[in-house]
Amino acid sequence: MDPVLIIVIVAIVAILVIGILIYNGLVQKRLRIDEAFAQIDVQLKRRHDLIPNLVAAVRDYMGFEQEVLTRVTEARAAAVAAGASGPVAQAQAENMLTGALRSLFAVVENYPELKANQNVLSLQEQLTTTENQISFSRQHYNAVVLDYNQTIATFPSLLLAGPLGFTRREFFAAEPEATEVPVVSLR
Questions:
Q1: CB atoms within 10 A of CB 133
Q2: Cα distance between the two ends of the chain
Q3: What residue ranges do the domains of the chain occupy?
Q4: How many other C-beta atoms lie within 10 A of the C-beta of residue 179?
Q5: Residues 68, 71, 76, 77: what is their CA dihedral angle, to the nearest 10 degrees?
Q6: Kind and range of the H or E element at 119?
Q7: What class, spelled out in words, does domain 41-137+169-178 have in CATH?
Q8: How far apart, in whole angstroms, are the C-alpha atoms of residue 157 and residue 166?
Q9: Digitized pLDDT (tens) for each residue of the chain, 187 residues in all
Q10: How far is 161 from 175, CA to CA, in rounded Å?
Q11: Rounded to two decimals, what is the model's pTM?
């Protein structure tokens, strides 16, 4: 067999193997993003499930503060609806919900009987824990998105990424005023 032909065959096989490895790596990174986003969704669902319980627990004590409760309820509904709109829209809706919850917790501070209510204390603690888990999930998601976006933008992956449909993913970013977890001491 001709040595030039062997070199060409080896080169073609090497290029194919490298292409397959790059493709498989891109698929794995894309799946990690999907998994990380699913983890955010799990935590957001938990948050969304806790909010009606919190609103119900404080409603009787806060009869004349209906505007705050309405804002929280509307923000929760918008956040739930934004879930299918992608990370950017969902992050914006969740940031609105965080702001509404901050308003609620600020008003709750004015009600001593709520500070002593075990149900409200428990819900507040669960919500704070969930907010922390959302923050960690968002950090993980953004880290895998960064890794994926860097990979599809660098050589040699960029040669295959575009033609094979691997596109840039958006970060799940909190707005600057919503970066802190709402912490309220009801004790």
A1: 17
A2: 85
A3: 41-137+169-178
A4: 11
A5: 140
A6: helix 118-153
A7: mainly alpha
A8: 10
A9: 899 999 999 999 999 999 999 999 999 999 999 999 999 999 999 999 999 988 888 877 776 678 888 899 999 999 999 987 888 888 899 999 999 988 888 888 887 777 677 888 888 889 989 999 999 999 999 999 999 999 999 999 999 999 999 999 999 876 555 445 555 554 4
A10: 30
A11: 0.80
Q: Length of the chain in residues, anyone?
A: 187
Give the C-alpha separation, 46 to 133, whole Å: 10
Beta carbons of 97 and 86 less than 8 angstroms apart: no
Cβ proximity of 65 and 107 under 8 Å: yes
The DSSP line for 26-47 is: HHHHHHHHHHHHHHHHHHHHHH
Cα–Cα separations (whole angstroms), residue 26 to 59, 154, 171, 176: 49, 12, 17, 31
Query: Rounded to whole angstroms, what are the CA distances from 53 to 5, 125, 161, 180?
Result: 73, 13, 46, 23
